[in-house]
Amino acid sequence: MTTRGVFSSRLGFILAASGSAVGLGNVWGFPSQVASNGGAAFVLMYLILAFVLAYPVLMAELLIGRATESNVVDALGKVSNGKSGRWVGMWGIATVSLILAFYGIVGGWMLAYTVEAVASFVGFDQLSQWLLGSSIYRNILFCGIFMLLTVGIVSGGVVNGIERWSVRLMPTLFVLMLLLFAYVMTQQGALTGLKVYLLPDFAEVLNPQLLISAMGQAFFSMSLGVGTMLIYGSYVSHKENLPKLGASVALVDIGVAVLAGLLIIPAMYVALHNGVQIFAENGELLAGDTLIFTVLPALFATMGAAGLIIAFAFFLLMSIAALTSSISMLEVPVSYVVENRKVARNKAVWLIAAIIFSLSTLILFNFDTLFGFVIALTTRYSQPLLGLMLCIFAGWIWHRNSILAELKKGDAQAEHSLFWRIWPWYVKFVCPVIILLMFYRSL
After folding, report:
1. Which of 157, 290, 314, 364 lies 20 to 30 Å from 106, alpha-carbon distance?
2. Residue 1: is its pLDDT beyond 70?
3. Whether the Cβ atoms of residue 333 and residue 90 lie closer than 8 Å to each other
4. Which of 379, 75, 352 is nearest to 225 (CA)?
């Protein structure tokens, strides 16, 4: 008798899986990449590469997950009939745990800035200054609060935790984004930013550096390679048509990234109009943490009382985006400990969260040395190689007949579909070459 959870509805799965994919990589990373890679040319290549590269790998994870109904270690073990798959699964768990260790820190920053907007609004100036300062105590406290929120959701299980909260958080995220976009577009300077974002410079489209960045962004924004999509796939009903479900998740993820760019790039030009510096000395748009924690707060400060409400809404949006991803990351090691080591779910969630929070604290105490190193190690090196391994498992090791049988559970005519004509050879030959090329260039 299985005790595994199953998503209770198609919408629940789409919102949970999209929530996993929609994280700071979309709301922070995507506009930053657009800003530093020539605007609309980057957006165009990202849209193409998201379907050319990210969707086929997403489908590999979902198919392996649903067919095996297992955590990432056991799933890859079953597909490979041996220890090699289990080792790759353990590598995935180690990678996702390290990603969550630095992600929890950034999520904590977002929460701190959300609370700071409230503190400013009610006139608690001393508290506001402390929240804006980057002290070790503030960082540890808010990283801890962020991890507690993640624990609270994941300990509820698949239906009562992950699905229940994804169905609430994701629509809230969309509404906040649309309201902020509508407000920003009423400000002077926004249309200039919109042109930069929407009109591509076609001379830049085939710039190798832009292509590598767009490929990386497409890959990371869907949280591929580390088993989050595999584990969510393992909770999907066998009646569902997986290629369609996967396409829905990819579309929502891309939609949020594009919407984030529509919000943030025009906001930068509004900031420029209001006298805020948005260009670095080399003439490029400011990106990354400078954009989120310097440029945008400076913009909100020029808006008077309305700016505090906008700041609150924006950082609440960022906190929700971080949380919808962190719950899927925590679920990867938790599902392994619950199923493979037979530990009670609640105990497993607290135990793993405590270990990851300890890693976050270690990073915070050695911030200059470890923070950038852990991000590079996991997202630049480990994730693409894990994505490559998933392509090898799905394309070369797992039997084609088993894959087709899995697809037919949700679509009796699967072998006549366009997906089945293209995907098996594509994930076998094309995806590994593209990922290897991307990895080589990133070195």
Report:
1. 157
2. no
3. no
4. 379
pLDDT: which is higher, 218 or 113: 113
Q: How far apart are the first and last CA of the chain?
A: 48
Residue where the block lists tokens 């090329």: 437
Calpha distance 120→69 (Å, rounded): 49
Joined together, the tokens standing for residue 362 give 């270690």
- The mean per-residue pLDDT over the stretch 78-84 comes to 90
- What's the whole-model pTM score? 0.93
Structure tokens given for 318: 């960022």
Give CATH superfamily name and number for 10-442.
Amino acid/polyamine transporter I (1.20.1740.10)
Question: pLDDT tens digit string along 104-115?
Answer: 999 999 999 999
Q: What is the mean pLDDT of residues 10-16?
A: 94
Q: What is the Cα–Cα distance from 299 to 306, expressed in whole angstroms?
A: 11
Calculate the CA dihedral of residues 214, 219, 223, 226 and round it to 10 degrees.
-140
Nearest to 273 by CA among 180, 193, 181: 193
Domain extents in the chain: 10-442
Q: Is 366 exposed, middle or buried (0-12, 13-18, 19+ CB in 10 A)?
A: exposed
Three-point CA angle 389, 392, 397, nearest 5°:
125
